[in-house]
Design goal:
Layout (H helix, E strand, L loop, with lengths): L5 H6 L4 E4 L11 E5 L2 E4 L1 H20 L4 E4 L3 H14 L3 E2 L11 H20 L7 H18 L11 E5 L5 H10 L3 E5 L10 E4 L5 H19 L13 H23 L3
Parallel strand pairs: 4-5, 4-6, 6-7, 7-8
Antiparallel strand pairs: 1-3, 2-3
């Protein structure tokens, strides 16, 4: 079956790669051409990889598998978090902490600490502490929520990870590779395909490209599992507006780009 159409890929700018000076030679097999110093990704190959990757995701979801969503770059944060929450999957959108996978037991102690602090604040017991200590504990709580809040209900290692920009998320990919956890990734022309189990060759910088691929993955999970539970208990507010604003800015940038480079 076809999960995404060629028209959708083109409209989202999935075919625009990086500048030719920023590339990984191993990615060459997914490149169609070079135009005015920009690589153009072969969308026929992207479609084939989408089908392969999404077949795997669909099968994993139907078996009750857990996929950890990872996207810490600014363009990806809101989208990744919104889709992870929609599907009840864990996520990391702030800095990846070394050992999140390879030292998961220690990471669980940080989550336990976050839960302890939440209980302290929600029960009102925090008011028994001196003001200075309340401020200190509040800061600690906010920091833990930012870094491990998205994985607080992940009681075991994930069955796979989905990454936006594996070059940026190199530590997450390395940890998954070390543990034999399959890596699914939206990967641009600067990426190493050899470290990715299920690659979707495409623009990993543009909001619309990230949104198209990530949202479609979310749809697959919802369809296969009938929705899910919010993994963190913390709601995202204003995300859609922020994405829309970023898209408007991106539209202007792409208009300039396409006038000089055209489309593939």
């Amino acid at each position: 079956m076809s999960y995404i159409s060629m028209k959708q890929l083109l409209e989202a700018g999935v075919h625009f790669g990086h500048e030719t000076k920023r590339w990984n030679p191993k990615f060459k097999r997914f490149i169609f051409a070079e135009r005015n110093g920009i690589f153009i990704i072969d969308l026929q190959k992207t479609l084939k990889q989408v089908d392969r990757s999404f077949d795997y995701i669909k099968d994993l979801a139907e078996r009750g598998g857990v996929i950890l969503f990872v996207g810490t770059k600014k363009q990806a944060q809101e989208i990744v978090e919104l889709e992870a929450r929609r599907t009840g999957m864990p996520f990391v959108t702030s800095r990846w902490l070394g050992g999140m996978l390879t030292n998961f037991r220690t990471m669980r102690t940080r989550i336990d600490r976050l839960n302890e602090l939440d209980d302290m604040f929600e029960s009102g017991r925090i008011n028994d502490r001196p003001k200075a200590e309340r401020v200190e504990l509040g800061t600690e709580r906010e920091r833990l929520l930012r870094f491990v809040g998205g994985i607080r209900k992940m009681t075991r290692l994930p069955d796979a990870i989905f990454v936006v920009d594996p070059t940026k998320e190199v530590i997450a990919v390395q940890e998954a590779n070390k543990l034999g956890i399959p890596v699914i990734a939206l990967a641009d022309t600067d990426s190493d395909p050899d470290v990715i189990d299920y690659i979707v060759p495409g623009n990993d910088d543009a909001i619309r490209s990230i949104q198209l691929i990530t949202h479609r993955i979310g749809d697959l999970l919802v369809e296969a599992r009938g929705g899910g539970e919010d993994v963190s208990g913390e709601r995202v507010e204003g995300g859609t507006a922020e994405i829309a604003g970023a898209e408007q800015a991106e539209n202007g940038e792409e208009a300039v780009l396409t006038t000089t480079q055209g489309r593939s």
